[in-house]
Amino acid sequence: MFDIKSFALGFITMMILTWLDKPIIYFLDKCKKISKK
Fold it and tell me: Is the pTM of this model over 0.70?
């Protein structure tokens, strides 16, 4: 049987991770620049 709840949860998680991917890299890059100063 197809579990729509687990599918929706996995899909939302993937969407969030994909959406956060660049902002997290950008944030870490800023943190590195600040720590170098």
Answer: no
